[in-house]
Amino acid sequence: MKNGVQQFQVGDSIDAYVLIKQVKKGIASNGKPFLSLQLSDQTGEIDAKLWAISAEDEAVFRAGTIVHVQGDVQDFRGQRQLRIKSLRPATAMDHVRPEDFMPTAPRNKEDMLEEVHQYIFEMNNAKIQRLTRHLLKKHQQAFIMAPAATKNHHEYASGLIYHVVSMLHAAKSLAQLYPSLDTDLLYAGVILHDMAKVRELSGPMTTEYTLEGKLIGHIPLMVTEIDNAAKELSIEGEEVMVLQHMILSHHSKPEWGSPKPPLVKEAELLHLIDNIDARMNMLDRALERVEPGEFSERVFGLENRSFYHPSFTKSSADPT
Amino acid sequence: MKNGVQQFQVGDSIDAYVLIKQVKKGIASNGKPFLSLQLSDQTGEIDAKLWAISAEDEAVFRAGTIVHVQGDVQDFRGQRQLRIKSLRPATAMDHVRPEDFMPTAPRNKEDMLEEVHQYIFEMNNAKIQRLTRHLLKKHQQAFIMAPAATKNHHEYASGLIYHVVSMLHAAKSLAQLYPSLDTDLLYAGVILHDMAKVRELSGPMTTEYTLEGKLIGHIPLMVTEIDNAAKELSIEGEEVMVLQHMILSHHSKPEWGSPKPPLVKEAELLHLIDNIDARMNMLDRALERVEPGEFSERVFGLENRSFYHPSFTKSSADPT
Amino acid sequence: MKNGVQQFQVGDSIDAYVLIKQVKKGIASNGKPFLSLQLSDQTGEIDAKLWAISAEDEAVFRAGTIVHVQGDVQDFRGQRQLRIKSLRPATAMDHVRPEDFMPTAPRNKEDMLEEVHQYIFEMNNAKIQRLTRHLLKKHQQAFIMAPAATKNHHEYASGLIYHVVSMLHAAKSLAQLYPSLDTDLLYAGVILHDMAKVRELSGPMTTEYTLEGKLIGHIPLMVTEIDNAAKELSIEGEEVMVLQHMILSHHSKPEWGSPKPPLVKEAELLHLIDNIDARMNMLDRALERVEPGEFSERVFGLENRSFYHPSFTKSSADPT
Amino acid sequence: MKNGVQQFQVGDSIDAYVLIKQVKKGIASNGKPFLSLQLSDQTGEIDAKLWAISAEDEAVFRAGTIVHVQGDVQDFRGQRQLRIKSLRPATAMDHVRPEDFMPTAPRNKEDMLEEVHQYIFEMNNAKIQRLTRHLLKKHQQAFIMAPAATKNHHEYASGLIYHVVSMLHAAKSLAQLYPSLDTDLLYAGVILHDMAKVRELSGPMTTEYTLEGKLIGHIPLMVTEIDNAAKELSIEGEEVMVLQHMILSHHSKPEWGSPKPPLVKEAELLHLIDNIDARMNMLDRALERVEPGEFSERVFGLENRSFYHPSFTKSSADPT
Amino acid sequence: MKNGVQQFQVGDSIDAYVLIKQVKKGIASNGKPFLSLQLSDQTGEIDAKLWAISAEDEAVFRAGTIVHVQGDVQDFRGQRQLRIKSLRPATAMDHVRPEDFMPTAPRNKEDMLEEVHQYIFEMNNAKIQRLTRHLLKKHQQAFIMAPAATKNHHEYASGLIYHVVSMLHAAKSLAQLYPSLDTDLLYAGVILHDMAKVRELSGPMTTEYTLEGKLIGHIPLMVTEIDNAAKELSIEGEEVMVLQHMILSHHSKPEWGSPKPPLVKEAELLHLIDNIDARMNMLDRALERVEPGEFSERVFGLENRSFYHPSFTKSSADPT
Amino acid sequence: MKNGVQQFQVGDSIDAYVLIKQVKKGIASNGKPFLSLQLSDQTGEIDAKLWAISAEDEAVFRAGTIVHVQGDVQDFRGQRQLRIKSLRPATAMDHVRPEDFMPTAPRNKEDMLEEVHQYIFEMNNAKIQRLTRHLLKKHQQAFIMAPAATKNHHEYASGLIYHVVSMLHAAKSLAQLYPSLDTDLLYAGVILHDMAKVRELSGPMTTEYTLEGKLIGHIPLMVTEIDNAAKELSIEGEEVMVLQHMILSHHSKPEWGSPKPPLVKEAELLHLIDNIDARMNMLDRALERVEPGEFSERVFGLENRSFYHPSFTKSSADPT
Prior knowledge:
Chains A, B, C, D, E, F: Residues 163-279 form the HD domain. The first copy, chain A, has 320 residues and is an alpha+beta fold. Helices cover 39% and strands 19% of the residues of chain A.
């Protein structure tokens, strides 16, 4: 697949495999039902409408299905829309796999995992090192696949580990500027802070909150995970409690989900780095397709602001 | 001790054993240090000043010490103050015990414990019953001694179980009015909701927050306790998670310490009953000594309001 | 009418009398007007569309009209929708009455009124008793018919007295747990607190705010009503003012409509009981049709939360 | 009394009659009680300390007592303080009256009352005119003496009518700029908006909130007063309700004490004029003694701001 | 054009020139695009739909275009809608000018400018006078054309100067009531406070924020303008800084765009007068077409309130 | 001066030169005035009292005076206090200079200035480079001496440039992680963001807000400075406005003093880096003297939190 959904231009005729990411049913004023589809591959998404559907269409074209689509790209209120001419579900004969259509982090997940292990390897405090390694090992399979969120930032496959690795690098840089920081504690906090998202969220495809995600949430889940790990490893001492505090306080304010504010220096910095990385990720994506001299769309996770791309800065789209 | 501190009147000459509840050191304008003491027994508290102290006085008269005091009760800005004539620490010869000077719940703690067991006994859901019984048994010794808070409401020995028993009775009454409620879940929530205060607070004497109280807090501590109990008892199923949710959400709003709001009917009611019992406790104590036709002092825990005792209602001081 | 609107299933063919509760006019993309109807009886509501209407249709099919309808029940975005095949307004020949189609409290209004009178009968304070009885007598006709609100909770015929009776029972139970309470004052507060809703709201059918409801509101209206009643009955004394205070403060906070917060113990409890009863009413209705293991729709009056029905609790739908 | 308290300079020897406005008792570190006195006359206030008092002193020197004082004016932390050399209560022989020592509005109260009557005289709407005249007549005695508040603005004898007259003039000016305004309604609103402060506050000397001031407040009290007046005068019609709404909404927001926001144009303007007049009054007094190029003390009623007196503007102290 | 858009009644057949104020493209359920047009002249606006458009239609019928339209006025959900029968862009042959279709202030802009100059002429402080005159002269052309805002109040051609003149009259009236005010400072503040809206907004037609309006805003822009003017005129002294402070603080609170609150008396009044004039303008327009006894639509700029037109007040529509 | 104020221990006899940083006058209960002094040198501060002062003492011992003091260090409520035995102002004979007693940044100011110039030297955008260099040159003298604030963080001599250099290093590190950033814009924003503090604050000794600091503030002052610089250098183009926006928005929210939120990526990061550096500075100082296992005092600038020093982390006091 040389050209992806992101490259579709108004006027193009399309013949491609895509994933149905979302489906909503509507009823037109002529009384006939239709489907609003969001079609995607790893490069991006496009909207489409399937008019006058049958009950069978409704049963077949569900979120998570890969389809073969033919049609034309039109302009609708300034956005691209695909006018469908033919649509059928992919079969075994088509040799396509759902994971090839999932938006995914821009780096290889095994490489990133290797980097995380390297940070753990360099820790000096054995208790913190063992706890972190134990928990990473326990959740490793899900951890390298999970998104970091359902929306806003890093909401794609391997988004969680991509976010963690990026934060680890930022933590290392800042720890050189503020040398009183305990890097073992800081790195462990970074690695573990969102790890229970593997329990809070349903996984990289059509990500949703799980029942325990809704009723308990990733922060208390992780506090309990650390307690369990310490018991299994027979680790005692203040490290366990302070690590739990790092997790508990990393959203910084009660109204953002942290029952305790950061009361340890490394916990405060963990929150600040988390914030920077999430914001830089949202900003880069918001400005990706914005021409110099133009404003981006409003970004919900950034206080609904619309950002300006100055005419004189180098292109955001070409960060190399 | 026939007459307690509460009964001291301006003009009385006093000869009594009292507990030093709080001490603050000051320096007078003549350059000499003095101590501001808060003296108490089970009936109440009175302020006193010890002028021109020596270094030895400062070492001896500390919070938690029982002393023998002689002096006169004076009026100071509308409040009673004890003018100390002699003061010495009690010794083994005096046959006095600290616990006899602690403010304590108005009911016998063994009776209250028996009532809690009765509520557990009547539960139908075996998983909830076993979890609750296990956790009560584990913490029973501390649970029947602990205060419910460091200040505001039920902040005395056995205050926690007194609060729990009162809430159980309210829960039972309301469950009769709203029959769709699951009483097993509701009672278990009441019994466990503040149980980790035995870890959050230092105990009934000169109550303070512990380190894990400050860094983690009783809500996440209890969520982990329930997880541990379920593992020990090999209990699985939604009951465990929903009980954890009851604990997690019982402060109702993030800014009050609950990372999740109540999302189950019994969790919502648990919060409401907790609120009513705390407020009625604060109101009864605020109005205890207020004459009909007068206003109480301001009550911090009740939005700093000052409450009126109507002239026509029966005396708050005589609720029998 | 053996089976009501609530029992209509997708696939049923319907032939029934129903009340038009709401009407909205739309214009379809073919330029022709249509009506969106909400059809109801005492058991519930269903949506329907009437396409391509004439000016006469628009004049005839108004809110509050009873109609005879034939059609089929379809599924539309997960909700039932009635596809109308024929529709005509009911006439005298049909022998149907609007009040038979109004949602109504689940208890008989005369029985509830009798219970209120019983609470008044047992009062000891003659001034409070006479004021309460006088005001109940004055507004009795409207009081037993009125809804408690236009939406959110108890928003059906006789909802106000149903809410009051439920609160009286809760007040009685709690007064036994907190014996310092003055029950005369508390019961009078419960009975009168929302009584001026008979002036604030237009009545049980298609309930709206009246002009004095919008400009003055039920709280100041009731304060004036009590003043008038006291003058008519030549009652003087603090009871009058304290009762007015109970009404004035029962929303607890200025931003919820109370210019004074509760400054009397019984006023504080009145607010808390009002809150519990409203919340339990909303919760029971939100969870009525929610299967175990599922979440309810979002409930506006409960901070827009969606509630979970645990798989292990007894069915909410079967509270007997 | 040629020179008042306001004119006392550091270094002056004083021999004068003054009013004790406030008294607080303290206990010095030598164990002896003393009194902190606030001494005042119509021109201003000064602090003084009376050391080593007897029980008799405490009984005699109470708030509201006129005393004859001799002493020296000293500087204490940048503020004037009177060092008392002799102090005795005034007696009948001294021929002094408390009202001569009260801070009072800068205009004659009979003149101001005459102006209010003139505004009523010019009204065209007979219902509004009769209601306003009736209520003014009923409360006239207290109305011309009352302060407008206990603190912040117009908190002196006749402060209420001074505030009302000033607002009437502002209302008249603005009504010429915005001719769609109904001046009858606007003027009646101005005259009545704070009239129930004669019931809410205890009067011009040592002003405090009354019991009905605390439990009901001047806004609901006035709504009821208008209802009573309309009944006495047999006036019906929307004017009564709209006038009640003007009163009810004149604090504009629930959190400032208005259960309804202004929903009528004249009610909105009433609030805005009330605000302007209160703010100009506070500003003039805050800047009265501030030299050009200096900042005032912080003003609580103006969001705790400290205001600057530009070097180039004409002197605030000399507004003629 | 005897009758304007405002006078179009349901049932009328229309043949008129109008301005396209806004355009939005939609796609109907038959897949064909259409345009939603807002058509306007100086008297008001009306909505219209143009169905089944061609690509050429879309290119021609843009905001800012004057068109000749024929059609019928219909009722759609209680609002007038124009059913278009023919539509063509106006050409040079039609002899129509865009500015004749712009909503404009109700007074002649040259007259208003003359009044502003009169206020400047009467100033006594030469520095303030020269600064004000210089800045007015610099921006005069745009100043007399500019709207005061993009929406809410005075959002029409010459709205800015209309707002300023109205505020100058109010300032003059109030300065007579509060004589300590420095009128030079106050008038200069009124004239300059919003002057940089000529840079913040794009002009009277299809008003939008400019880039410097979005990134800097009219308040900091004007502070810099005053600095520049003082440099050009070689004016030094506190007047420059205090005038800058007047501009900086005229929104009163940081959350409304003022980094400093008013700290000078005239700055406080400037804010209050700005507020009154904006609110009276919004109220007059909201109530313009509201019949006695009816409520207005909700007004966004007035806390989303809906205002009542009392039955007894003179017609808002006839303020003469 | 081998041992500074910071090293004084309870029990030491002191003979040293110190700076009087603050003075407050009090009056003791014996009626005699005294001075509360805060004595400091570059290492820290200590409180002292000078009893029974003469008028001459008050005139001589003012803030900013260097004195020679002899006395003993005592413990007062857990804090060190100096008991003065002799005190005299330093004279020319003493060869001491005020700047030797000022708390100062831990790095040499010339070195830091050199680093700032290096960052400017490496810029690629000539407009940004020239503007930044011009403004640095203009304010260089004050810039390298100024504190960054009056309290909370970097509130010592050369605190501003220390803060800027630290932020430049952080900016450089983060720009490597997020390569789409324009470093010219980011570095210029860092260098200029607080430069107008040289006008807002009075300087490194006894730092106070200037008049233009109070009425305008450093943010609008700097926006104007950039405008002036661009005019002087004849620089036009978007760079000027975007740099002004960087300054204007660097407090991020209106309620923190920024009339515009960051709308450019580099502006967002500027705010985040400013926040991190201020917080790390406050944290390091709060924890400086806190033993492992102890909590710090509350830190006003960090939401009044008290921070924990874990027992297992390396000593904060020894960050080398």
